[in-house]
Design a protein that fits this description.
The structure holds 2 protein chains of 2 kinds. By secondary structure, chain A is α+β, with helices and mostly antiparallel strands. Chain A has one domain (2-63): Roll (SH3 type barrels). Chain A is built from 1 helix and 5 strands. In chain A, a hairpin with a 5-residue loop joins β2 and β3 (17-21). Chain B has 2 domains: 1-278, Rossmann fold (3-Layer(aba) Sandwich); 283-326, no CATH class. Chain B has helices spanning 6-14, 40-51, 72-77, 88-97, 114-121, 138-147, 160-166, 172-176, 189-205, 224-233, 263-266, 283-286, 311-314, 319-325, and strands spanning 2-3, 28-29, 55-58, 82-84, 103-109, 129-135, 156-159, 182-185, 210-212, 234-241, 245-254. The longest helix of chain B is centred in the middle third of the chain and has 17 residues, at 189-205. The chains are: A alpha+beta, B alpha/beta.
Chain lengths: 64, 331
């Protein structure tokens, strides 16, 4: 994630990038955020974010 | 036990979690779909605003929600300018690009979405932008469920992302006053199963605690910044819920200081009464968990995802839609 004022360019995974509004959180570049309808609503700890991402990867793989 | 979140219903149904539970444990879906509970009158207001020449922007789910006689997608088919946006900020950007048109954002959603409306309402908006606010709050709906006598709820799975904003405090009422085990849970199958387990453990111990399964996202205090912006932008007021009726202190309304951003005031559109329940449709019973989608005589017969009749079949978070799309994993 890279910051520019109240906007952040967030990597949603596998190269999907989108500008997200970060007014609702205190966030630094490189952190993980939970995004709802174009706005970051919570900052996640890195280890917990990575665990969530890996759970999703497992689920997606299981669904294929 | 009862959850109050369209995404929980999706996880439970999509991954067939009900089939893993013992027979004496049932998880029912409460009014957790923000689109399904918007009353027809407020869809009628959006349609009337469109007819007055405003460009209506909304989330995709809202487009096909039935008003009294038609939906926004019908209005669009008849030439109205109705556009889907991913975020309210996208609607604001459109308004800035087309200053000669009036833009209205139909703000639908629970506490997860309301702060995003607040950010824009308190920000630097162009003059041609206003809001049709249909935001609702989750805890009053949970309290209503406790009054529905024959539901026999013995625990709440509280919604993860609403809780990420409001924190745990608003749920204390349910454990303290109603002695109802309440567990905030996340959205992966393991989260939901863990939430169910935590409630069952409380039931077997005959206690009622407020617990947080989703601590990696939900902090006890929630998101204070989002709460503060919501408080600055909105007053809490009574609101109508489709199929449920009027609930006190359950809806958000722009503060009087922001009245110039209220599309109802700006264009003088005030519709009090609408036709919420269409003949034969049992959404009003589905939405409070009294019946399951397949107990409605129209489910997957007259009412399908391609041709929805009731609001619960329209939204991807609606219980009927979730069941229709995941029917293969139902037991």
């Amino acid at each position: 994630m890279t910051l520019n004022g109240d906007k952040a360019n967030v990597d949603f995974g596998q190269g999907v990038l989108r500008d997200v509004n970060v007014t609702l959180v205190n966030v630094k570049e490189g952190q993980y955020v939970l995004v709802h309808a174009g706005y970051a609503i919570q900052v996640l700890e890195e280890d917990e974010a990575l665990e969530t991402l890996s759970l999703w990867k497992d689920l997606l793989a299981a669904g294929e | 036990m009862c959850h109050i979140c369209g995404t929980h219903e999706w996880t439970i149904t999509h991954f067939g979690l009900r089939s893993l539970l013992p027979e004496n444990v049932e998880v029912i879906a409460g009014p957790g779909c923000p689109v399904c509970i918007v009353p027809a009158a407020e869809i009628d207001e959006a349609i009337q605003l469109a007819k007055k020449g405003a460009t209506i922007t909304c989330f995709g789910d809202v487009l096909r929600v039935p008003g009294s006689d038609s939906s926004l997608i019908d209005a669009k088919a008849n030439g109205a300018d109705v556009r889907i946006v991913y975020a309210v900020s996208d609607a604001v950007a459109m308004a800035k690009q087309e200053p000669n048109k009036e833009f209205v954002f139909h703000a639908v959603g629970f506490e997860t979405t309301a702060p995003t409306t607040a950010v824009e309402a308190l920000g630097d908006l162009p003059k041609n932008f206003s809001f049709l606010v249909s935001h609702r709050l989750i805890p009053p709906a949970m309290e209503l469920l406790l009054g529905v006598g024959d539901l026999e709820i013995s625990g709440f799975i509280a919604p993860g992302h609403v809780s990420a904003i409001i924190g745990l405090k608003p749920y204390e009422l349910f454990t303290r006053v109603y002695r109802m085990p309440t567990v905030v849970a996340g959205f992966e199958p393991v989260d939901v199963l863990m939430g169910i387990y935590m409630i069952l453990k409380q039931v077997s111990e005959n206690t009622a605690r407020l617990e947080n399964e989703y601590s990696r996202v939900v902090k006890p205090e929630g998101n204070p910044k989002a709460q503060e912006l919501m408080n600055q932008a909105f007053n809490v007021t009574a609101g109508n819920w489709r199929g449920i009726g009027r609930l006190p202190e359950s809806a958000l309304q722009l503060k009087p200081t922001l009245a110039h951003l209220d599309a109802r005031e700006k264009f003088n559109v005030h519709i009090q009464q609408g036709k919420d329940i269409l003949l034969g449709c049992e959404c009003h019973l589905v939405v409070i968990g009294k019946i399951k989608p397949d107990e409605c005589p129209m489910f997957m017969k007259a009412c399908t995802p391609a041709k929805p009749i009731g609001a619960c079949m329209v939204s991807s978070e609606g219980t009927c839609r979730v069941w229709a799309k995941n029917v293969a994993v139902q037991t």
